[in-house]
């Protein structure tokens, strides 16, 4: 029995070492890794809204619904979520809504930006919008 436990421990140790060694990076692999990271990463499109003072809850709900409908209308959007600011830091500068879209490529984002459904959403939003901030980035 002692030999079995020793043998099992040895096999587990060798298996774990082989998994860990696969994580070691050879300097010559770094250019290849950068290509793969970019290829396998996702393009995030972050949109923050600040509504005009006095905008009704009903109008804000229309904007929320219209933005939330875009992923069903524009297939290039591969991920979508949104939420309301709840940061206790007080650094939001009046921005209350965050919308977070994901694209597989810059080409997909380029299709989304002038898309007729995106433009129609802009027409719903613009009468109520005080300010907007947009940040796009590739995930790492």
From TrEMBL:
Pfam families, A to Z: Dabb (PF07876)
Alphabetical list of PROSITE patterns matching this protein: S_R_A_B_BARREL (PS51502)
InterPro entries given in the database record: Dabb (IPR013097), Dimeric_a/b-barrel (IPR011008), HS1/DABB1-like (IPR044662)
Annotated transmembrane regions: none
SMART domains: Dabb (SM00886)
Residue ranges of domain Stress-response A/B barrel in the record: 43-137
Assembly and binders: Homodimer.
Protein name: Dabb family protein
Provenance organism: Arenibacter antarcticus
Lineage: Bacteria, Pseudomonadati, Bacteroidota, Flavobacteriia, Flavobacteriales
């Amino acid at each position: 029995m002692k030999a079995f436990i020793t043998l099992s421990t040895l096999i587990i140790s060798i298996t774990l070492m082989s998994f860990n060694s696969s994580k070691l990076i050879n300097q010559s692999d770094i250019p290849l890794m950068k290509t793969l990271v970019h290829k396998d990463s996702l393009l995030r499109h972050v949109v923050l809204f600040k509504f005009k003072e006095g905008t009704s809850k009903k109008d804000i709900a229309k904007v929320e619904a219209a933005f939330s409908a875009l992923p069903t209308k524009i297939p290039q959007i591969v991920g979508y979520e949104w939420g309301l600011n709840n940061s206790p830091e007080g650094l939001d500068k009046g921005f209350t809504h965050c919308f977070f879209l994901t694209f597989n490529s810059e080409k997909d984002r380029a299709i989304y930006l002038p898309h007729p459904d995106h433009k129609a959403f802009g027409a719903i939003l613009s009468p109520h919008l005080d300010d907007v901030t947009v940040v796009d980035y590739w995930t790492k």
